[in-house]
Task: inverse folding
């Protein structure tokens, strides 16, 4: 033990100087690669997070500097008449939209992988809607589902069905948004296509030889093999839906048919009857329409805690996805 | 005997699969076809439920450009998308290299923070960042959306890292043996090998900016000189009453660059989408 320390002591000065020199240089090299990103993390993640927490205890607007008001903003969270509705809408969309998209992506991916002819063509056709800008696809769907003159309503009428009023009916507005989300399922589908191709064929064959039917093979061979991708799709799906904003805002604006000025887009937020008012839309309205910046930060902190909880809960499984070395 | 029985069954399965696939393809394409048809109608016909244009009016497309500052909005959007993509590449490629190929203390923590940033809903940091840009007098322009790209984009760094990790270290070690510094290794050895990954990431970044609605709404809604096409489209109807034929035409014009870019680089793009999800 002591001899080791001795040799260590004797060698260390030389080594130390060398390694210090080298590590100083290598740190500089690393810094030259990482500096912009590290600055970005500090300025666009660290600062705004800390500021959001601090601002949530203050009252201020663009014109007035922050003034400490203690828990006032936080108390308002419980008397805000619409935050509950907005949170409910976002939760509804998360619970329905994420599983619906995953199921649709999985089914279309399995169909694609089962096809031998024209697989590439179908894949492109199924994928194309995912490329459409959200504003574009939302406008298309509002037109498509327009009561009376929209083709979907006309089609339902030929079947003798009195179609719902979709984006103009509080009960049908969110389901209409789900249809819109399903239309753009292509990006998730491509991920599932690749995952399904990675499922070992031998395992399928072995299971088939053992007499497993198609459903059993899916349940006990395919599903476990694509589990990481399912976890990934669930996390990104939930996170994406927690910030769901554009489609609901545009659908409300276009379907409400009210003439709104350029800056007053948020005037139609939530149409019809707040059924499409999502949590981020309400945050935006409180902050930038009513100038309640302090309170908007309360809502932001809550959103942060929820989204980080979702991520952290699944981070352990996510680790395998990040890569093997860490 | 066995093969004889499976032959017609196989045929039925084949027909069923293609029937479903064709029906799905129709459902995926129908909204775009509907927009296309609507864009050629007269304004009056858009208020009927007739799907096929009574008469064809390709001049609607010219009318969109004449009646609205669509060209200006397109210009703003191109500027936003190109600058932010260019800046992103400048800052994110080195960062991704640092995370994938250099060993240093704090690398794991940095990677975790990048993922946190990627997972962070944009609205969480909206108010403090808006204040920041307001104090720099840059609200009302698109710069608050472009300039941060000089400091790397979390999703792009993450995606690029996923690509770079797949490049064997042997190539890098060989370059280092030959006396290349890390920067030269990146530029001479890694960049050429990572071209598909870089192309895919650049396309994602371009599409994000092109499609972005929340960012331009937040920063430019008061100043329509800086509107992007997405923001303009959503407000289009309100500016010119309800002219669905023009809205449809403008909407389709918005899709053209995205679709074109996709078909030009389809392979790299699909590979990129795949890599965002499959590294289990």
Result:
């Amino acid at each position: 033990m002591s001899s080791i320390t001795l040799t260590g002591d004797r060698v260390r000065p030389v080594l130390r100087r060398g390694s210090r020199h080298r590590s100083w240089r290598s740190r500089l090299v690393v810094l030259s690669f990482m500096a912009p990103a590290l600055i970005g993390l500090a300025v666009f993640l660290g600062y705004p997070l800390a500021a959001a927490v601090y601002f949530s205890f203050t009252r201020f607007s663009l014109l007035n500097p922050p003034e400490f008001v203690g828990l006032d903003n936080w108390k308002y969270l419980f008397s805000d008449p619409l935050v509950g509705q907005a949170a409910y809408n976002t939760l509804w969309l998360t619970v329905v939209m994420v599983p619906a998209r995953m199921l649709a992506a999985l089914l279309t991916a399995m169909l694609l992988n089962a096809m031998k002819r024209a697989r590439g063509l179908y894949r492109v056709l199924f994928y194309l809607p995912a490329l459409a800008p959200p504003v574009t696809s939302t406008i298309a769907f509002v037109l498509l589902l327009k009561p009376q003159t929209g083709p979907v309503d006309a089609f339902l009428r030929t079947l003798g069905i009195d179609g719902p009023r979709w984006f103009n009916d509080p009960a049908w507005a969110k389901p209409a948004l789900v249809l819109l989300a399903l239309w753009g399922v292509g990006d998730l589908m491509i991920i599932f296509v690749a995952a399904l191709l990675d499922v070992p064929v031998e395992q399928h064959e072995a299971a088939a030889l053992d007499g497993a039917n198609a459903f059993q093979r899916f349940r006990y061979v395919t599903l476990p093999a694509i589990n990481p991708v399912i976890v990934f799709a669930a996390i990104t799906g939930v996170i994406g839906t927690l910030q769901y904003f554009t489609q609901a805002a545009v659908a409300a604006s276009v379907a409400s048919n009210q003439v709104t000025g350029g800056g007053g887009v948020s005037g139609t937020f939530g149409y019809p009857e707040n059924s499409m008012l999502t949590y981020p839309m309400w945050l935006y309205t409180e902050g930038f329409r009513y100038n309640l910046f302090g309170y908007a930060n309360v809502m932001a902190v809550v959103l942060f805690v929820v989204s980080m909880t979702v991520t952290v809960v699944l981070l352990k499984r996510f680790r395998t996805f990040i890569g093997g070395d860490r | 005997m066995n093969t004889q029985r499976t032959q017609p069954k196989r045929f039925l399965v084949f027909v069923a699969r293609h029937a479903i696939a064709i029906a799905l393809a129709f459902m995926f394409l129908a909204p775009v076809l509907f927009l296309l048809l609507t864009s050629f109608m007269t304004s009056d016909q858009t208020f009927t439920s007739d799907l096929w244009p009574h008469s064809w009016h390709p001049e609607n497309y010219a009318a969109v450009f004449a009646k609205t500052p669509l060209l200006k909005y397109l210009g703003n959007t191109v500027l936003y998308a190109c600058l932010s993509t260019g800046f992103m590449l400048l800052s994110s490629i080195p960062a991704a290299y640092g995370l994938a190929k250099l060993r240093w203390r704090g690398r794991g923590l940095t990677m975790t923070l990048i993922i946190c940033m990627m997972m962070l809903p944009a609205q969480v940091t909206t108010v403090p960042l808006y204040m920041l840009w307001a104090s720099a007098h840059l609200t009302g322009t698109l710069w608050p959306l472009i300039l941060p790209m000089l400091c790397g984009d979390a999703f792009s760094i993450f995606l690029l890292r996923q690509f770079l990790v797949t490049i064997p270290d042997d190539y890098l070690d060989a370059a280092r043996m030959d006396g290349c510094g890390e920067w030269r290794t990146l530029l001479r050895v890694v960049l050429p090998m990572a071209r598909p990954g870089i192309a895919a990431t650049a396309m994602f970044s371009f599409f994000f900016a092109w499609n972005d609605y929340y960012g331009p709404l937040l920063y430019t809604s008061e100043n329509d000189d800086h509107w992007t096409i997405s923001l303009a489209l959503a407000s289009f109807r309100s500016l010119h009453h309800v002219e669905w034929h023009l809205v449809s035409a403008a909407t389709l014009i918005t899709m053209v660059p995205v679709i074109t870019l996709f078909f030009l680089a389809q392979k790299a793009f699909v590979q990129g989408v795949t890599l965002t999800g499959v590294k289990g």
In short: Chain A touches chain B through 111 residues (CB under 8 Å). The first strand of chain A starts at residue 58 and ends at 59. The beta strands of chain A are 58-59, 67-68. Chain A is about 70% helix and 0% strand.
